[in-house]
Each structure stands twice: as C-alpha cells, then as structure tokens.
Amino acid sequence: MNTLLQPKTLRGEHSRAAIFEAALALFQERGYEATTMRAIAERAGVSLGSSYHYFASKEHLVLEFYRHTHQLHLAAIGPLLARERDLASRLRGTIRAVVVTCEPFHDFPGAIFSTVANPVSPLNPFGKESKALRDEVIELYAEVVKGSDARLPDDIVAELPTLLWLYQMGILYFWIFDKSPGRLRTLEVIDQTTELIVRLLGLANLPVLRGSRKKILGLVRSVAQGT
Amino acid sequence: MNTLLQPKTLRGEHSRAAIFEAALALFQERGYEATTMRAIAERAGVSLGSSYHYFASKEHLVLEFYRHTHQLHLAAIGPLLARERDLASRLRGTIRAVVVTCEPFHDFPGAIFSTVANPVSPLNPFGKESKALRDEVIELYAEVVKGSDARLPDDIVAELPTLLWLYQMGILYFWIFDKSPGRLRTLEVIDQTTELIVRLLGLANLPVLRGSRKKILGLVRSVAQGT
C-alpha cells in the first residue's frame, strides 16, 4: 500500500462516514423526501460537490444504509453459524437476525423502503446497482445451507440460496407492515415459515413430489435470471 | 331516486371523471411526483377545492386508478369465468387478464406502484383505504375457485382466495420489473405458476402432506388477519 495515499484515504473515509451519518439523522428528523443533498452536506460539514463525489444521489445513501444493515447482520449471525449445524436453527437464527438488526430503523419513513417496488430506482432489489449486495445476501444463505448437517439433493442446494433471498424479502415486507409490539408477530411468522421450509425440504425426495420440485426449482432459476 | 338531485349527481360524476382523466394524463406526461393537485384541477377545468372534494389527495387518484383497472379486469375475465370449468384454465385466464389489462400502464412512473411498499401510504395493499378493493379481488378469486369443477377440501377453499390474492400481487411485482417485449416473460411465469399451484392442490390430500397443508393454511390465515 502506498503510504503517501493513506492519510487522504482516511480523510475520505471520514468524510464518507460523516455524510452517511448526517443523512441517516436527517432522514429520521425530516423524512426522506424532505431531505436534500444540500442539507446533508451542511450537516456533515462538507461541500455539496464532496457529497456528490461520495454518493451520486440520495438513493445511493439508502443503498449504503442497506449495506450497513447487512454488515450488522453478518456480525450478529456469525457466532450462531459457527456453532450450530441444524438447518432449521441456522435458518431461523439468520432471518431473525435480519429483522432484529433492522428494528431500530423500523419507523424510518416508508418512502425509503418503498423504493424496492420502483423499477427505475437504483435501490430496486433486482437492479444493477444492488447486485453486489444481493449476491452477498445469497452467498450468506449458501453458507446457511452448506454449513448445516442437512442432506439435500444437489439441485435444491443450487437454488435454495436464491429462494431464501426471496423469502428474506418477503419477511422484510411483512415486517415493514407489522404493528405488533417489538414486531413479535414477525418473529412468530419466522418461526412458522422456517419450520415449514425445512419440513418441505424433507419431503422433497418423495417420488410423488419430484415433478413439482423440478418445476419449482426451474421457476426459481428462471425468475432469478430474468430479472 | 330524487330526480331533483339527478342533474347535480350527473354533473358530479362528470367532474370526477374529468379530474381522474386529467390526473392520468399528467402522471404520464410529467411523472407522478411532479404532478400537483393544482395542475390536475387546471387540466380538468375545475376548481382546486372541487378536486379535493372528489379526491382527498393525489394518492386517492391512484387508488381510483387501481379501481379502474379492476373494473377493466372484471369485464375482461367475465366471459371465460362464465364458460370454463377447469380450475387451471380459470386461474391462468384470470391472472393473465390482470397483466394484459394493466399493460397500457406498464410505463407509468414506478413511483405510482412503489407506494405498495409504503405502510404510511393510503395505497398500501394492506391498509384500511384499500380494504374494499382488496376484498373485491379476494371475492373474484373465490369465484374462480368455486365456479370450477375441482373438488377441494373445505379448509383449502376457505383460504385459497386470500392466497391467490397474494399470488396476484407477486405476479404484478414481477410484471413491474419485466422488461421483455410485450411482457411475454410474465405470461410464461403465469403459465408455470398456475400449473404448479393446481398440481400442488391435487397433492394436498396426500397423507404425508396433510401436516404441511394445515401449517400453510394456518399461516395464510394468520398473515392475512395480522395485516
């Protein structure tokens, strides 16, 4: 590493973090729509040009927010994945950690989450700009599956991580609308759905279900590629 | 009917329709965000107060848009439901008619559709204001199921319409992101998923699947109630 560059890089890291923190604070104070890049730059104590240097748009700040929660999630789930071999426990723990990690941001203006249904937004979960993060989440679910002691057919092992990523989006969607105290309803739904998923995986080898299994996996592959 | 009121009512209907048409035109020309209630009133040739009398907010105009497409959908699917008894054909026809009916609006600004993931928006599909329309769509799927010659267990007949409403939302979500010509990919996915649904319904009576079936139906009931 070129040590001459290091101080500049560190300063850059510092500015980047300050902009990100200012944005989060303003989103919570004023709402997402009402927050401008100018206001974010002022709060962070940097120039407007500098803000745009680090984040091309307000939406890129939300993408950074997603990355941030993903890092929190990885840190939260690490110990369990290192210790536990039972697939149901690994899956339940991982998806539960997603919503528990995101809980402090639950009352974030809905506008932030609503961009997931906007195909022209760089934040939509199928878009180019969110691909790196999407791949990381799918990779995490591959680890959830491969690190377990469950014996699953190869075709299922290949598609299950993508299916679990879709499942995580479904749970997060439910969580956004969940008004129960501490989002306990979401935790219950996670208990029920993870048990159901593992139960159905156990049935997937039944001859009578083999045709449906092939069709489901083909569908997951095709939907994931087509987007 | 009080005939003295009729002319006024008709005039009211006319204003309401003019405001709705002006809104649709402006959403397509300028985008949803950039369109104001004032601009809509001007285009419709009515006062701003009159606009707010018929539609409490811009979002209520989008709710009207959903109602409008639902009416188009009902009209499109009527003949098939009157004639066809095969469940797979009824289901495929019904869900296909949704996307074909919505096709002229596909390039509508994503912002309109993105409100579905916003819990504070009156447009979110689980909210109070969209309940009437949601119930109508669930009622339509009840008719799709009940008018078929499929023999299904009572517990499935009870929850299937709600499940099919969720399925319709999933297909519409896929359709929003579909960039294939004429949205042919969505039509393919509809073929594959409706076939799979009917196949799985046929297996639901297998003793080995009875436990999973109970759990899945309980989950649908609980998720639909909880929201």
- The span between the termini of chain A is 39 Å
**How many alpha or pi helices of chain A?**
10
- Uncertain spans of chain A, ≥5 residues at pLDDT below 50? 1-5
Largest interface pair: A-B, 43 and 43 residues
Specify the biggest β-sheet of chain A: none
How would you sum up the global shape of chain A? elongated
Helix content of chain A: over 70%
Please trace the helix and strand order of chain A, writing H or E for each element: HHHHHHHHHH
Number of strands of chain A: 0
Rounded to an integer, what's the Rg of chain A over CA atoms?
Answer: 20 Å
Structural class of chain A: mainly alpha
- Quaternary state of this entry equals homodimer
Q: Classify the beta-strand content of chain A into a percent band.
A: under 5%
Q: Quick check: average pLDDT of chain A?
A: 87
What does this structure look like?
The structure is a homodimer of 227-residue chains. Chain A is an all-alpha fold. The first copy, chain A, contains ten helices and no strands. The first copy, chain A, has helices at 6-30, 37-44, 48-54, 58-83, 87-102, 110-114, 131-146, 154-177, 184-203, 207-226. The two termini of chain A are 39 Å apart. Mean pLDDT of chain A is 87; it is low at 1-5.
Keywords:
homodimer, 227 residues, mainly alpha, disordered N terminus, 10 helices
What topology emerges from the helices and strands here?
The structure is a homodimer of 227-residue chains.
Chain A: H1 6-30, H2 37-44, H3 48-54, H4 58-83, H5 87-102, H6 110-114, H7 131-146, H8 154-177, H9 184-203, H10 207-226
